[in-house]
# Entry
Amino acid sequence: MKRILYTLNRLGIRGPLSIFLFLASLTGLTHAQVPGLLSYQGRVFSGAAAFEGNGQFKFALLNADGSVVYWLNHPDGNGDGQPDNAVTVGVTRGLYSVLLGDSSLPNMAGIAPSVFSNSSVHLRVWFNDGTSGFQQLTPDQRLAAVGYALMAAGVADGVITEQKLSSSLSGTITGLNQQIQALSARLDGLLASGLTVASSSGADSSLLAQGFDLFSTVPAPAWANGNTAGAASARYGHTAVWTGSQMVVWGGSLAPGVYSSSGSIYTPLSDVWTPVSPVAVPSARTGHSAIWTGQKMLVWGGFSANGYLNSGGAFTPGSQQWSPISTAGPLTGRSGQVAVWTGSRMFVWGGRNSTGLLGDGALYDPATDQWSAVSLANPPAARSDAVALWAGDRVLIWGGQGPSGAVASGMQLVFDNSGNPVEWRAISASAAPSARQGHRAVWTGTRMIIWGGENAGAFLGDGAMYDPVANVWTGLTGAGAPSARTAASGVWTGREFVVFGGQTAAGTVSDGGAYDPEAARWRELSAQGAPVSRSDATMIWSGTQLLVFGGQSGSQAFAALQRLDPKPTWYFYRKQ
# Structure
């Protein structure tokens, strides 16, 4: 077995960069929201060499001797003392960085501030280089004061009083309060005399009401065109997956009736494309599924010149190797199916073929190249073109095309701690979005967001959020939302649901919007840099940028790769 070493570089709290606004009247102190994220950076070696590629990591927060576990990145259903599923992290020359508690990452659970009510909290890490299996890295790292800042969010006003502090500290607090009051008075004077204030709103009612005028704007970053050398050819109906450092584009339609078995790998850091190996590649197709396992891209199903397919392949980007996926499974060929990665297996369900709509599903294990049918009571009604998401311990399926048109129903497939499906549960119909297909969905870590689509030719511009634990829907605000559309692109950035492009009543569009579920607010996406109007494009969130590739407008296919840092426009106000 290879020896794996690591060095810890830094642990810290990370959150969004904010510009603080001083309003015209400062009456007291408020609590700032403390993000439950720990920025962890380290270095790993496999043998004597620095590891390179996508590593599998498991994390735990526990006491000094490891006898009490406060937090795991994923539940420990089998009781072996470590999380059941790992987090995939890109490693470059042995160096890696991850946000512990970032629930937008697959298999990463959020960290409750109550973890730091314990006096001694240590971080334990397990690492798998893909060949040696998981090994515990030593020693455990004790968290110092940085992590305990998370507790600030849970301290209520008035809980810490002068009586609870020593007399010397009480005097210090009294002096600080006096300084704060003096600062407040000075700020009031500054605001009255023309202090400049920044806001993300171009019509900030709170500032306008206090006599501020908008005088300057810093525009949002512009769209940038990616390198075209070696890029995948123009296509639609293709797939794209994000490996943690690269986007892999594969398959699709080059033109009506012309299907592709080619692809290319894009590395945004270097702006370089690398063609996907054609050796042992799956047959040309469109309307297929592609998911990322943490190590491989699994491609399955779709439609080709020979009809509906139940074949596929597993592609490892680092070695540029394809291996076939077994066709000796319970599923017939199909397209329009949903596919998600559960952490250990690919779940495929629904779709359509020459016999009509399908309502069956199965799990594929890439480790054994074997399929197993999912035959549980009360499955969803047969449909195609639904949306499906992995929600940590269940698959959420909603909407799509049913026998009589678009549907407004869905189901949850719940898994046990061993990773096996145990039952179908209905998704509440109360306050659910209207029937639709061509819609987009994202998982925020706690909720599914549905938006857009169409029903019987009518384009939709509304949506809702679904909490699977409470089985409750909450409508999205319509103020500032993008125009009604179908076949748009949508991703979750960790803070916002971003929608771009799509087909509207006026044709394909190049605009979009970002929805912040915490603020319940839409904002426009940047239009600078001439984004390409398109529908059916693939869009990936790299962690810092949107990467949009392919798509179509009418019968024209696109190959344009465009990138955007989706920061908002800032507006500056001052009182005359």
The longest strand covers residues 4-13. Confidence is low (pLDDT under 50) at residues 1-33. DSSP finds three helices and 54 strands in the chain.
